[in-house]
Amino acid sequence: MTTIDDLSAGDDVDSRCLKCKAVTNHTIIAVQDGQIVKVQCNTCRGRHNYRPVKPEVKKAVRRSSAKTKPRLGKEVKQAARFEDLLVGRDLTKALPYAMTAVFEPDDLIDHPTFGLGVVAKKISPVRIEVFFKDAQKVLVCASSL
Ligand SMILES: [Zn+2]
Q: Do residues 49 and 38 make contact, with C-beta atoms less than 8 angstroms apart?
């Protein structure tokens, strides 16, 4: 391995050349205190101060934010739980949702906005909690009493 101490005028060294806009082979013209000072480009013959070849600076890999993960996990969980609720059900028999209709726990309903849902429980005689794919909603229904 060649160290800087071994270099002297007349030796070849790699340097960045502004004229060639590249790292080219140079001949050392002057060395001072063990440091290369002046070089001559072997490609364009231009003489200039020695510019050390800098290693390529690799761009730091951006770490994706983990903030969105728990929320996504919750949504996936909700969807998976919803899928479980639909197992064994005849989806074509879903009851169209209407505020004037009567629903009982475990009924399968078809909501114009939220889609298919399963009635989780009755909160009051006129309110039901419904499990949809994305979220649980409280809907108004007619009193069954
Ligand atoms: Zn050059």
A: yes
